[in-house]
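Shape matters. As here.
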Amino acid sequence: METDKNGKSLIPNGILVIVGGHENKGEEPEKKVQEAHRSREILAAFVQLTGKKEPVIEVVTSGSSEGAESFKDYEKAFAALGVKQIGHIHHDKRADALGSALNGRIMKADAVYFSGGDQLKLTSVYGGTELLLKLKERYINDKLVLGGTSAGAMAFSTPMIYAGNQDVQQLAGEVRVTTGLEFLKDVCIDTHFVDRGRFVRMAQVIASNPTCVGIGIEEDTAIIVRKGRDAEVTGSGVIIIIEGFNITDSNILNFGSGESIQIKNLNVSLLAKGSKYQIPLHNPPHI
């Protein structure tokens, strides 16, 4: 077992459920073609992974500008899955997230779920806070289940994309990244990946960070990550893995030139429900 210099395990005991957005919460599917495929499968798996008959779940909606409305949707969805103890955490300002007021709730939670919205808001509000530290400690040491969807999922990774839409993603250097909440390191998560055509922007991130792995997740699809590395796909769609370990050439350094991005020798895999993937470790643990 890998341990740090103090003998503590470097392998997380917790589980990540990383969702590509628009996970079915029991609503009517928008299109009939989806009806046969969409279910509450992802949220049901999230609840079941706690291993508790009566789990305590906290829903964090701080990334959303409509936190109360977002929470109502999840409260209804989790209640329909038999969950009786559902808490709501929402902060619009970093000052309100400082301190230890929520430590007791974080320690009692069996699972914490981050809704969508703005991933940069999540990192700017929670980065370096005691709340985030407690979540990380419990993720490492306990069997805490952490879920995130859309922006909430993107914030789990480092590097984290925060800008670079379809209008500019093909231009070298026009995708913006920062440090995420770091539940996964050397992994970049992007969501709504197929629906919003985000392959090129992920490829740019990997060209500028070839040690990293890009994981693009389709809507109503998720990866479940155990032990910090062992991933399995669930849900109705696909995930796309982009690896840049063998990149031989790119023009990523020509940022600001207006050139279209060029990258040679990316490795791409498409995975669907039941597929497994082990996240590579190309950096030694920082001890």
User: Anything to note?
Assistant: The two ends are 14 Å apart (CA to CA). The longest strand covers residues 221-226. The chain has nine helices and 18 strands. The longest helix spans residues 67-80.
